[in-house]
Amino acid sequence: MANLLCIGAGYVGGPTMAVIAQKCPEHRVVVADVDSAKIAAWQSDHLPIYEPGLKEVVLSCRGKNLFFSAEVERQIAEADIIFVSVNTPTKSFGQGAGKAADLQYWEKTARQILQHSRTPKIVVEKSTLPVRTAEAMERILHSNDRNLPFDVVSNPEFLSEGTAIHDMENPDRVLIGARDTPSGRKAMQAVVDIYAHWVPRERIITTSLWSSELSKLVANAFLAQRISSINSISALCEKTEADIQEIAHAIGLDSRIGPHFLNASVGFGGSCFKKDILNLVYLCEHYGLPEVARYWDQVVQMNEYQQARFHARMLSSMFNTVAGKRIALFGAAFKANTSDTRESPALNVCRALVEERAEVVLTDPYALDHARIDLAKDAPQVIFEPDPYRAAAKAHAIAVLTEWNLFAELDYRAIYQSMAKPAFIFDGRNILDHRRLFSMGFNVQAIGKPPLIHPAR
Ligand SMILES: NC(=O)c1ccc[n+]([C@@H]2O[C@H](COP(=O)([O-])OP(=O)(O)OC[C@H]3O[C@@H](n4cnc5c(N)ncnc54)[C@H](O)[C@@H]3O)[C@@H](O)[C@H]2O)c1
Predict the structure, then answer these.
(1) What single DSSP character describes residue 293?
(2) What is the CATH number of the domain that holds 132?
(3) Which of 40, 73, 127, 343 is the most buried (most CB within 10 A)?
(4) Cα 399 to middle of ligand 1, angstroms
(5) β-pairing, 383-384 with 397-400?
(6) Cα 261 to ligand 1 centroid, rounded to whole Å
C-alpha cells in the first residue's frame, strides 16, 4: 500500500486520480487543492467539472480509498508519491509575457513539498511544463539540509477533456520519464507499477526526463497544427466552392495522413493548445531557434484568423449589421462533453458580436455557469438560456459553436418558425444537415462550404 497524493484538483488532477484510485484499490489516494470550495464540490454530489462517467468513478471509491482535502501541507507529510497537477498558464507579466509558462504555482508547490516532507518522496510532474523544468524542481527539492532524497519523474497527461475517463482507462500510451540513475529507475518503476494495474505494459513508455517533458508540448503542437491546417484550407474552400468535408475525407483515407483531427471548425480552444504552443515558441526563441519559433507561432495565428473570419462572415451575410439583432449562440464550451470554457472560440465569437451591439443569447447544456463568470466583465449584457428553443425564438441567426450532439438533433423546423426572417444559420462545427436546413427556409453558411442562400424574392 502506498499513499498517493495529487496536488491540484482541477480538470486533470480530479479525473486522473479518481481512475487511479478505482484501478488501485490497495493504494490510498488523496487529491488536495488550495481552493477549498473546489474541494467541497469534489466531496459533494455536484462535482466541480463535468466529464462523462466521472461521477460514477468518483462515487465508486470516494470515502474508501479516494479522498479530497484542502489540507495540502498535512497531506504532503503523509504521501509517498506526489503527483503535481497545478495550473501552468501563460505568463501575463514580465519577461516572456504572453508566451512563456507561468511557473509560480509550480514553484510554490515544490517549495511546499520541501517544507513539509519528513520522509523521501517521489514527485511526479503531471502538469504540462517547459522542457528541463525537472532540473529546477530537483534543485529546489535538494536545497534541504535534512538530506531528504527526492526523485522527480515526468508523467505528462494526454487525456482529452470530454473523454477524460475513457482516455485514462484506455490510454494510447502512458509516458514516464526519469533520470537514468539507480534511484531514478526505482522511482520510474514505482510510477510504472501504478499504471500497470490496468494499462498493458507495451503501452507504458519510458524515456529520459527531457524527452518526456518535451513530448507533451510537441503532442499538443501537432494536434493543434492539424486543426489549423484543415482550417486554413477551409478558407480556400469558401472562395472556390470546394467542400472541406469532402477534402478531409479524401485526404484522410491516405494512411500516411489518417482521418483524425481533420474536422474544420471555428477553431480550437481549451486551456492547453494555445498556451502549450506559445510555450514551445518561447522555448525555441530562448534556445536561439527563431525560424522554428515562427513556424509554430503560425498555428496559433491561423486559429485566431479562423475565429475572426467566422464572425466577419456572420456580419457580412447579415447585411453588414447585427446591431440590435438577436443572435442565438449554440454552445459555450470549447468542445462537446465538457463544461470547460477556457479559451473557447464560442466566447470569442460572443464578445465580437456584443461589440457589434448584437443581442446575444448563449445556450449550452453544461457550460453556462463557467461562461457567465468568463463574460461577466467584458460582455455582461449576454443572455444565458439553457433551452436552445427559447434561445432561438425571435433570433435573426443561430451560430453553432460547440459540437454537442443535442444541437444536431433539435427540431429545426419548429426553430425556423419561431425566428425572425430571413433566418440564418452559421454552422461553426459542420454538425448540421445543411441541405435540409436550406430546404426549410434557412440561409446556411458552414465552415469551408459553399453558402446556401435563398435569392431575394
Ligand atoms: N485540462 C486538460 O485537458 C489538460 C490535459 C493535459 C494536461 N494538462 C495540464 O495539467 C495541468 C493542470 O491543468 P488543469 O486543466 O487540471 O488545471 P486546473 O486549473 O483545472 O487545476 C489546477 C488546480 O491546481 C490548484 N493549485 C494551484 N496551485 C496550488 C497549490 N500551490 N497547492 C494546491 N493546489 C494548487 C488550483 O487551485 C486548481 O484547482 C496544466 O499544466 C495543464 O497544462 C491539462
Answers:
(1) H
(2) 3.40.50.720
(3) 127
(4) 31
(5) unpaired
(6) 25
Task: Please report which helix (H) or strand (E) contains residue 289, including its range.
Answer: none
- CA-38 nearest atom, ligand 1: 39
- The verdict on pTM exceeding 0.85 is yes
Q: If you search the block for the grid coordinates 486533470, which residue do you land on?
A: 12
**Distance from the CA of 263 to the center of ligand 1, in angstroms?**
28
How far is the C-alpha of 181 from the C-alpha of 421, rounded, in Å? Answer: 71
Report the b/e string of 393-412 with b at 16+ CB within 10 A.
Answer: bebbbbbbbbbbeebeeeeb
Which residues lie below 8 Å from residue 56, measured CB to CB, with a gap of 6+?
A: none
Q: Looking at the structure, tell me whether residues 106 and 218 fall in a common domain.
A: no
Q: Assess whether 285 and 423 both reside in one domain.
A: yes
Strand partners, 66: 29, 62
Query: What mean pLDDT comes out for the span 113-141?
Result: 95
Render pLDDT for 282-332 as a digit per residue (tens, 0 to 9).
999 999 999 999 999 999 999 999 999 999 999 999 999 999 999 999 999
CA 212 remoteness from chain centre: 20
Domain containing 217: what range? 209-457
Helices (H), 318-393: 345-355, 368-375, 388-392
Neighbours of 146 (CB within 10 A): 8
- pLDDT tens digits for range 172-192: 999 999 999 999 999 999 999
Q: Indicate which residue's Cα is closest to atom 11 of ligand 1.
A: 127
- Considering the domain architecture, whether residues 145 and 272 belong to the same structural domain is answered as no
Residue tagged 453588414 (cell numbers): 320
Tell me the pLDDT tens digit for each residue of 337-393. 999 999 999 999 999 999 999 999 999 999 999 999 999 998 999 999 999 999 999
Residue whose CA is at the smallest distance from ligand 1 atom 13: 87
Residues 213 and 193 in one domain: no
Give the pocket of ligand 1 (CB within 6 Å): 7-13, 33-35, 38, 72, 85-88, 105, 108-109, 127-128, 157, 159, 161, 271-272
